[in-house]
Design the sequence.
């Protein structure tokens, strides 16, 4: 019943971690009060680890461990970061249409990375991802609001689209980088005013949501096989649209010279005529605000684009609506103002959106879309990796076995060399392991960090670095004792000087990991991240656990002078002083 | 001296090996290794994976029979898709590497392999790499290497005196060249994983060196007050003092890597692990050797050249 909210667990975790750090710093790494530090460290690690069970989170596995298709696309011709983001969000939308859980699409440098988990048809994914997204200008069918058959079809399309969206959001679809994805909230409730007259030609953007005042269906949609769209304005044309009229035209059937059924970002449906012009007529676009606070998009067309616009849209389509469609999604559908028939001044156009906060955002979106459309990002497929789920499981199993076996070898070696002292190493590794597991689970849940094979290898490799910190400390301790001090008097100086060495050596590792992380791509990043993470944890654990633990053991004089404790035997001293 | 007594001496820190006085031997040995490595890279080149050249590879587990290279070749050669490299991994897995294939050709090969292996088409893994990807990879690796050297050099100069930083960086170059050389000589596969491993080795090689140098730095402080023995002798004593620790470091670092190679590759057949762990093992070995036999003697060598310290 009374569920404890997640944030309370998180607050306790952060509090414990902070407390540990504060105590560690105030006690100079356990030099002053080892018990206190040891206790809080153990509590923190155990608490953080048990959180993963309470919250039921576990590490997210990378595609190479659970199977899936990973595609790297390289953008040609130095597109801007904005353009890459749009290209990525377009691909993200397309991948969402596959209906798989948790696809991941993101730009990285000049590349776009597409990760689709699960057993996938690699070819279908490549086809879907590879096409260049085009911006097209399509007239909205003149009889969209009047033809009962079209009305019925559009209502069905909208309903099906709505159903699909709520389905895919329930299955937990992509949360990454989707600025232009399908939100169902209605944001475009902006009122638009008409700007007529001289200066730049103007289009009026009718708020799209107002167009869907569809009332009653006429005939069952399943019986409608063809609808006839009225297109062309003053050069009227009847265009027939047939096929599956119950849903949005699939992307592969969306060709420039054919009519389509499409929706806008809010899910409002449109019946659209064949494309009249493409995005290449746009030279530039920028947001504009006039003195009355009215926001609009100023569009500059190329000189050829300007004359084409007047010939194909401005003159024939007066008072008609023209949809701006990017990758089958209607971005805006402004009404063409009559003054545009007379041609453009300096190839300038203005798309009036309205005023208010919502309009501002809409203008920015439209500007990015138009800029993108003027020079679509051409993507070249660089690599495709398809890992079958069986191979993924094999790799995961191999990684776990190799890690466990490696750990076993290290522990046996440590036991042989350090006897009882080696138990400190074993416990330390266990604590580091628990912390890493908790951190990786948490980063997976919050940041979507995945554990790939290379990440797992990074963790296994870092085992050496972790264990070495103990070796440095123990050897230093022997040195101090060899010089004639008692064990207890040797502990603090040994820790101080060995920690300097550990820090120096770990810093080199951290430098390497950070350089790799920032410069490399893909799975190399994973490796570097996990190597860096565990190196960092090694530093924390050596302060918060290693030294206080040894100090704790040193308070039992009988124990530490025993031959199998690991100090006496190495030092050949029968008269070892505790 | 028996192996047992060597171990016992190491354990009780009683060794007194004359590593510094015999440094010319190590230098000559390393010089030969370096010449052979560089020569081999020029003559044999490196056996790079499709990630660097572009190409398509397929991998699938075969159900119900043990696959044979001949069968697979007979099966695929009628497709006329150029030269094929066919490998059997871990006795039940077929890997086919070809030039870059079109999507239709890929679909064809996947269908044939799936049928041969009695598995679903979705169980055939594909890796397809375009021709310019390798350039991107190489450029990024080069950048990473350059930045790493720079940052590490700056760090070392702050942490140690300049002759030590020089020695450490030279030893690092030594390790990279020899590792690449071994790859070239033995024809090991160079994949992106190998490149990552190279970069990791640099870190390890330095890590080990830093620990040894820290000891020398510590002893130098004491030595500077009295200068009873020559600098070289002090370094030799320091080296013997950290020998056990340095060997321990290398052993604990190499144990998990050996486990990766053995378990990952020969027992369970996760081939992706092999490239990586092999490079690590080779690099760790050279790193362990160089921090004791190259990096440390180099400090003395550089100091002698610079004639900065009296009583060397």
Sequence:
């Amino acid at each position: 019943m009374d569920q404890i909210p997640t944030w309370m667990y998180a607050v306790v975790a952060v509090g414990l971690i902070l407390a540990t750090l504060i105590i560690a710093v105030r006690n100079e790494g356990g030099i002053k009060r080892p018990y206190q530090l040891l206790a809080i460290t153990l509590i923190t690690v155990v608490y953080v680890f048990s959180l993963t069970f309470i919250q039921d989170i576990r590490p997210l596995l990378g595609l190479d461990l659970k199977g899936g298709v990973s595609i790297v696309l390289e953008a040609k011709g130095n597109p801007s970061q904005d353009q890459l983001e749009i290209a990525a969000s377009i691909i993200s939308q397309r991948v969402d249409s596959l209906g798989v859980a948790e696809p991941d699409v993101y730009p990285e440098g000049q590349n776009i990375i597409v990760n689709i988990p699960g057993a996938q048809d690699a070819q279908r994914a490549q086809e879907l991802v590879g096409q260049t997204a085009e911006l097209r200008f399509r007239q909205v069918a003149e009889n969209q609001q009047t033809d009962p058959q079209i009305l019925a079809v559009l209502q069905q399309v909208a309903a099906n689209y709505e159903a699909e969206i709520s389905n895919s959001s329930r299955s937990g679809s992509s949360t990454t980088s989707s600025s232009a994805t399908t939100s169902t909230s209605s944001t475009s409730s902006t009122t638009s005013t008409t700007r007529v007259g001289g200066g730049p030609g103007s289009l009026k953007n009718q708020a799209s949501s107002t167009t869907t005042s569809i009332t009653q269906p006429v005939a069952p949609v399943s019986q409608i096989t063809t609808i006839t769209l009225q297109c062309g304005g003053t050069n009227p044309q009847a265009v027939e649209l047939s096929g599956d009229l119950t849903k949005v035209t699939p992307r592969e059937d969306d060709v420039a010279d054919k009519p389509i059924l499409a929706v806008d970002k809010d899910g409002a449906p449109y019946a659209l005529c064949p494309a009249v012009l493409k995005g290449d007529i746009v030279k530039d676009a920028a947001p504009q605000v006039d003195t009355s606070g009215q926001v609009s998009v100023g569009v500059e067309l190329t000189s050829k684009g300007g004359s084409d616009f007047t010939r194909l849209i401005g003159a024939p389509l007066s008072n008609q609506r023209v949809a701006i469609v990017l990758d089958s999604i209607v971005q805006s559908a402004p009404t063409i103002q009559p003054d545009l028939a007379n041609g453009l001044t300096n190839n300038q156009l203005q798309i009036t959106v309205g005023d208010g906060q919502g309009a501002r955002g809409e203008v920015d979106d439209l500007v990015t879309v138009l800029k993108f459309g003027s020079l679509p990002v051409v993507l070249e497929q660089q690599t495709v990796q398809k890992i079958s789920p069986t191979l993924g499981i094999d790799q995961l199993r191999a990684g776990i076995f190799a890690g466990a076996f490696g750990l076993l070898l290290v522990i046996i070696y440590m036991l042989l060399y350090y006897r009882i002292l080696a138990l400190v190493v074993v416990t330390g590794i266990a604590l580091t392991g628990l912390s890493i597991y908790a951190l990786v689970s948490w980063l997976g849940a919050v940041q979507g960090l995945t554990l790939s094979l290379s990440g797992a290898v990074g963790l296994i490799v870092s085992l050496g670095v972790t264990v070495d910190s103990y070796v440095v400390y123990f050897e230093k301790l022997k040195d101090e004792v060899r010089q004639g001090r008692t064990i207890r008097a040797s502990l603090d100086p040994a820790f101080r000087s060995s920690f300097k060495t550990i820090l120096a050596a770990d810093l080199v590792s951290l430098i390497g990991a950070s350089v790799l992380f920032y410069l490399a791509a893909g799975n190399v990043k994973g490796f570097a991240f996990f190597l860096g993470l565990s190196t960092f944890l090694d530093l924390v654990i050596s302060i918060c656990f290693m030294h206080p633990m040894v100090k704790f053991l040193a308070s039992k004089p009988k124990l530490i002078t025993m031959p199998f404790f690991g100090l006496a035997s190495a030092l050949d001293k029968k008269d070892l002083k505790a | 001296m028996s192996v047992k007594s060597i171990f016992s001496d190491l354990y009780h820190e009683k060794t007194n090996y004359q590593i510094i006085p015999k440094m010319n031997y190590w230098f000559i040995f390393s010089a030969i290794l370096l010449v052979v490595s560089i020569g081999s890279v020029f003559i044999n080149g490196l056996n790079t994976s499709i990630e660097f050249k572009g190409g398509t590879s397929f991998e699938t587990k075969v159900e119900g029979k043990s696959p044979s290279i001949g069968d697979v070749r007979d099966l695929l050669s009628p497709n006329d898709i150029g030269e094929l490299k066919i490998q059997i991994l871990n006795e039940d897995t077929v890997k086919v590497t070809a030039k870059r294939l079109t999507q239709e050709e890929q679909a064809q090969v996947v269908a044939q392999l799936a049928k041969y292996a009695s598995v679903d088409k979705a169980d055939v893994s594909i890796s397809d790499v375009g021709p310019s990807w390798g350039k991107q990879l190489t450029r990024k690796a080069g950048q990473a290497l350059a930045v790493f050297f720079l940052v590490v050099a700056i760090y070392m100069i702050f942490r140690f005196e300049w002759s030590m930083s020089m020695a450490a960086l030279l030893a690092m170059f030594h390790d990279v060249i020899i590792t690449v050389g071994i790859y070239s000589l033995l024809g090991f596969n160079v994949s992106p994983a190998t490149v990552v491993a190279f970069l990791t080795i640099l870190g390890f090689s330095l890590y080990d060196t830093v620990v040894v140098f820290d000891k020398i730095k510590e002893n130098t402080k004491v030595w500077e007050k009295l200068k009873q023995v020559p600098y070289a002798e002090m370094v030799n004593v320091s080296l013997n003092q950290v020998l056990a620790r340095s060997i321990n470091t290398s052993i604990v670092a190499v144990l998990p890597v050996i486990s990766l190679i053995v378990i990952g590759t020969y027992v369970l057949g996760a081939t992706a692990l092999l490239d990586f762990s092999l490079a690590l093992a080779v690099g760790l070995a050279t790193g362990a050797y160089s921090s004791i036999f190259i990096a440390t003697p180099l400090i003395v060598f550089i100091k002698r050249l610079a004639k900065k310290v009296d009583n060397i």
In short: The longest strand of chain A covers residues 269-278. Chain A has two domains: 6-62+388-571, 69-382. The two ends of chain A are 55 Å apart (CA to CA). Residues 170-202, 205-214 of chain A have pLDDT under 50 and may be disordered.
